[in-house]
Amino acid sequence: MISISLCMITKNEEKSIENCLKSVHDIVDELIIVDTGSNDNTIEIIKKYSNNIYNFNWINDFSAARNYSFSLATKDYILWLDADDVLLEEDRVKLIELKNNLCDATDYVGMMYDYSFDDNGNCTYSFRRNRLVKNFRGFYWDCFMHERLNVWGNHEDYDIHITHTRKHDNNKRNIENFRKKMLENYYLNPRETYYYGGELFAGGYYDDAIRVLENFLEMDYDDNYDKVNALIKLADCYSSKGDYEKAIKYCTNTFNYEIPRAEVCYKLGYCFQKLQKYYEAIFWFKETLHSNCPNENFMKVDNSWINYLPYQQLCCCYYEVGDLKNSFRYNELAASEIPNDYYVIKNKEMFKSLGFQVD
């Protein structure tokens, strides 16, 4: 059996920290909590579970705080979590099994991160992260924000899910932190540049995002997944600005790195539809229905957009070219996905008025 140190960084986490610690404290062998300046009840709550609480002077660098927490661990392996993460009961059982059976030759373990959920509690976005790493191997964090854990050696992936429990809206804060860092003459590495561009895009600063993301694509960087995402964000920037020709260019540039993703095919269909090139749009919306994201470490669980939205847009495109039979057929398929959707219902009323047999 291996021993595990849980390493966490915290600041003002009184609303979530107890649920996190409750879900894991009796499985790990050591709790290492690095606090970066809490002024609420976070520390008092942590003391119910551990006295290994260390203060860290915040320097606008998440990696520095995480590296400090790792340096304090004394057990065989390090598990890292955020205060708003929990292990559900089935995942607690799986973690105990892993602890009892993990091969000592394993250097790091990947687990799924269930990050976002719909109003019914269904996971809508899940991806894999390296969560358990062997101690004393020199693994380290870099990038001051959207930090990355650098690992090497033998790895295994386990079907253990870490559940994220809080919605974040840190876009404004994150942009401010990036800008503050650059005012300190800090050089953004390629990954940080990519994430800065992403924050600018999310904040609606499309021209700035275009500049930063195009700069990122010129950098020496070997992560094709991030390159594809940068191209997709650039396409979205230009689409938001109404420049659909450039949006199409950036979408098709993703094909240099991987086979077409469903979301790229859908965006191409949307752009051609906006340009009133309906047959081209029909082609790409149909491709959306047959495409998947090829990276198994990033699993989009919510497939409603992969099915319902292409069906609905195919309904519209076939209507525009005068093919009412196919237009009706695709509205029926959209109804099979989301029967009470406003547009589905309005289209049913229209088709009924045109003499179609509507349920």
Automatic annotation (TrEMBL):
Coiled coil location: none
- Glycosyltransferase 2-like domain: from which residue to which, for each copy? 5-128
Output the Gene3D superfamilies linked to this UniProt entry: Spore Coat Polysaccharide Biosynthesis Protein SpsA, Chain A (3.90.550.10), Tetratricopeptide repeat domain (1.25.40.10)
| Matches recorded under SMART domains | TPR (SM00028)
The regions listed as transmembrane in this protein's record are: none
Task: Identify the species of origin.
Answer: Clostridium punense
Q: Where is the signal peptide?
A: none
The name of this protein is Glycosyltransferase involved in cell wall biosynthesis
InterPro entries (alphabetical): Glyco_trans_2-like (IPR001173), Nucleotide-diphossugar_trans (IPR029044), TPR-like_helical_dom_sf (IPR011990), TPR_rpt (IPR019734)
